[in-house]
Amino acid sequence: MSFPLLTATAVVPAVGAIVVAAVPAGRRSAAKVLALAFSLITLALAAVVFLRFEPGGDRYQLTESHAWIAEFGVRYELGVDGIGVALIALTALLIPFIVLAGWNDADPQETGNSRWRPTQGFFALILMVEAMVILSFEATDVFLFYILFEAMLIPMYFLIGGFGDRAHAGSDQKAAAQRSYAAVKFLLYNLVGGLVMLAAVIGLYVVAGSFSLTEIAEARASGQLEMATNTERLLFLGFFFAFAIKAPLWPLHTWLPNAMGEATTPVAVLITAVVDKVGTFAMLRFCLQLFPEASKWATPVILVLALISIVYGALLAVGQRDIKRLIAYASISHFGFIVLGIFAMTSQGQSGATLYMVNHGLSTAALMLVAGFLITRRGSRLIADYGGVQKVAPVLAGTFLIGGLATLSLPGLAPFVSEFLVLVGTFARYPVAGIIATSGIVLAALYTLVLYQRTMTGPVKAEVKTMPDLKPRELAVVLPLIALLIFLGVFPKPLTEIVNPAVEHTMSDVQQKDPRPEVEAAK
Amino acid sequence: MSPTAVHSLWTTAAEPLDKIQAPDIEYGQLAPILIVVGAAIVGLLLEAFLPRRARYQAQVTLTVVALAASFAAIIALAQAGYGTTKANVAAMGAIAIDGPTLFLQGTILLASVVAVLTFAERRLDPETHGNHIDSFVAQAASVPGSDSEKSAVRAGFTTTEVYPLALFAIAGMLVFPAANDLLTLFVALEVFSLPLYLLCALARRKRLLSQEAAVKYFLLGAFSSAFMLFGIALLYGYAGSVSYARIAEVVDGSVRTIDPALADTMGNDALLLIGGALILMGLLFKVGAVPFHMWTPDVYQGAPTPVTGFMAAATKVAAFGALLRLLYVVLPGLRWDWRPVMWAIAIVTMLAGAIVAITQTDIKRLLAYSSIAHAGFILAGVIAFTPDGVSSVLFYLGAYSFVTIGAFAVVTLVRDAGGEATHLSKWAGLGRRSPLVAAVFAVFLLSFAGIPLTSGFSGKFAVFKAAAEGGAGALVVVGVLSSAIAAFFYIRVIVLMFFSEPKADGPTVAVPSAMTSTAIAAGVLVTLVLGLAPQYFLDLAGQASVFAR
């Protein structure tokens, strides 16, 4: 039996979570170092997965399959396609930065209580989320995926509710109340989505008699498994509802600004850059593969929702006074692009969407983490409390600018490639949608540059005069991310190479071919 | 012994007395029940003859040993194949020894052992007058607040009668799901109900509340027993027999000979429908299904918490066992009549339990309403009317019992000056004070909420899957919706424990002895094992899902 590489990528952080949680209260720094070490081992394993994956090979590689709960027809089945590999790489890459960025965020304010170990809990929960997210990218069994999809809510919930942002305008009590409100809202939204999906999962089993993604997809492709049109549509809606909440898509997005605003910045990055990707990933992997006909049926509505997300998210971002909420609304706009790319049903759109998931993770992480460093220094999240930071902390301002430019998809930075692909892919099939979506880019320039202008330029505010520049630990977080953004901006081939074959498979699942260019079609 | 033989025995009863044959009793197969009954009687004798000081030790030991021995007997029977190939009807047709019986009896016994451990806990309260005290009243007969009560407390009395009472209740519960005729069913019901009424009244603190709970439980329980007895009488009039098999045969029309004495009534569908409905009502009362749930919150709140845990787990198991047997063995021919009714009851139970729980401010009442919602989920599995339905219900009951007992055991730990601090506001910040206890309780709550990787999810998935396969897709949708509602209040408690600042005058968490710790640990262990690797137990439940008739 070969080494279970995929299992290892999830087991390492899970073991890390247990080890970190067991560190005694007095040894906080040991817990941090251990957390970082485990996240780096995971990264190394993810790199092995990335290298061992052969783009031209089978659709699902490095597969593992073990009996698990025979009674339910559930198997422990793992396998990755190019999309999964890209997202595993993204997750494993971001977690060390998140750990490093949150180094001191969870230290207890009072040290009297020897049993209260928030630091250990914080890092253990982050590693636990990492394990579940990675495994959910690998699961090819619908039930296994569902379990992880739901179970990851619990550690996320404790991360949001238990470790709030200390830079809060109101009193401690008000902060605690808002935080637990945000955590409960996050959990309820996602739990409701998950439970609706549970009904659909059970329904799928009743119809298909199996939970194996590959088996069901094969049976569907070969015509052995016929689904009544209405059944397929209902099941599709059950799945899509859950993923649309997770992603999040307008009008199910309202939990995200709360959660991202109240959580500490590393956790906010974890939500938007890592956990939410499970939603869009699952649309590609489960909605399109299992329910191709229903996906096509629902496409017009989903495209409209995606367009609304793009424009509405961007408009609200323009109007925000709170830095973190601004980034949250910008993310909603970007998730609109991802969904648009997926459901445009062109290979450019879908590989663009996959790249977008990775690039959005990197760019939001860069922007959000620098914003977090800024907020920690000043102790406020309000844009109006800043001004002229670039004069006192030029490196901070510079990295913030690059993060912002990446968010608005400046050519030369990675998000440009993906946004361009999504727009081209959409335009090929739905020109009007492509045109409307383009307005999102314009608005993105507006909210990012205005944010930069208000906080970083202008006269130096009295409160920021003594603001220190980025420390080495913070530089270690930001610089690699920026380097990656630039590298993938000029040389996206390593990613496109592994993503494209996977997208071709998905396209053939939904029996779609790219529309021919118009010039050719006119002949 | 075949059912017709039972019948012929009855008809020959009119002949001369010397022809009566001695009944044929399979003592080996009844051993689990007999051991518990025997131990209960020995317990009563101990109570009468042992000096007061020695009783506690003797009773606890006897009870645990008896339950363990009884469980060993179940294992031996199951090993010998009585759950599958040798499933039969014993004791002259009164008791069915088959898969569901053995599985449910095993579950009841294990749950009871764990519950009895929480009964025996004496470390939670500080010692008064040099005596260890437990959750039970010093002297049940003394008036609350009176001098005689004070002197009983000073003398260090304890109500060790709870152990024989619990044993009698357990014996009744063991018979209840195994009963194969309506009279045995009724006798078993009374045998386990009466000791429970008493146990409810025996709380050491808040005695008036406890006694009120007992009276409510007794009155409503007596009503439901009466309804059930009336139903039995009507069903006898319909079928001319109280035997399950015989009634089933009359229902599906395979018996055409009419008993001359019952010529007027036999085969009268009105009797069948009304009688069946009344018996169902009695069972649904014990299960705590809406609209027969009114007693649950009051009784759960008033009863001593260890007893609440015991009732919530073991009674539910026994009652669902009896319900399954009644619907699957006696009334399968009537399923087009009872399924719509049970549909409605399941839906109302799930929704009402979940919705009303939201407004609760007392942790014990909250758990009571949660148990009502769970009864609704289990009913969804009952309605499936497939072997999968049976096995999913069996599995759910096993999973649920341990979580419930564990959860109530945690409730006994959180105390302030007035005893247990059950008001939710007092639980604020518990996660800061005692992270371990709060984390354990959070695990139980997540399991109640049916979050994946806990036993609650496995159970819920099993019943919903069975229901969907049984053609009750709409029920599944209502089920997931009410799960979502229910999740809200479980999460509220978690929020309270972890995200609220502890209050200055908040409760303390008592350090329990090994007994309560064992009970809680068993709950956590079962929750996680059944959540991560439920395969073995699902198999077991699957093998145990065929009824003997």
From TrEMBL, chain A:
The chain crosses the membrane at residues 6-26, 33-53, 82-101, 121-137, 143-165, 186-208, 234-255, 297-319, 326-345, 357-375, 395-418, 430-452, 473-491. Pfam families: Proton_antipo_M (PF00361). GO terms for cellular component: endomembrane system; membrane. It is a multi-pass membrane protein. This is NADH-quinone oxidoreductase subunit M. Belongs to the complex I subunit 4 family. The keyword Transit peptide does not apply.
Automatic annotation (TrEMBL), chain B:
Residues 179-485 form the NADH:quinone oxidoreductase/Mrp antiporter transmembrane domain. The keyword Membrane applies. Keywords: Cell membrane, Membrane, NAD, Quinone, Translocase, Transmembrane, Transmembrane helix, Transport. One of its GO terms (cellular component) is plasma membrane. It is found in: Cell membrane; Endomembrane system; Membrane. It comes from the Bacteria. GO terms for molecular function: NADH dehydrogenase (quinone) (non-electrogenic) activity; NADH dehydrogenase (ubiquinone) activity; quinone binding. One of its GO terms (biological process) is ATP synthesis coupled electron transport. Its EC number is 7.1.1.-. The keyword Transit peptide does not apply. It is a multi-pass membrane protein. NDH-1 shuttles electrons from NADH, via FMN and iron-sulfur (Fe-S) centers, to quinones in the respiratory chain. The immediate electron acceptor for the enzyme in this species is believed to be a menaquinone. Couples the redox reaction to proton translocation (for every two electrons transferred, four hydrogen ions are translocated across the cytoplasmic membrane), and thus conserves the redox energy in a proton gradient. NDH-1 is composed of 14 different subunits. Subunits NuoA, H, J, K, L, M, N constitute the membrane sector of the complex. PANTHER family: NADH DEHYDROGENASE (PTHR22773). This is NADH-quinone oxidoreductase subunit N. It comes from Streptomyces inusitatus. The gene is nuoN.
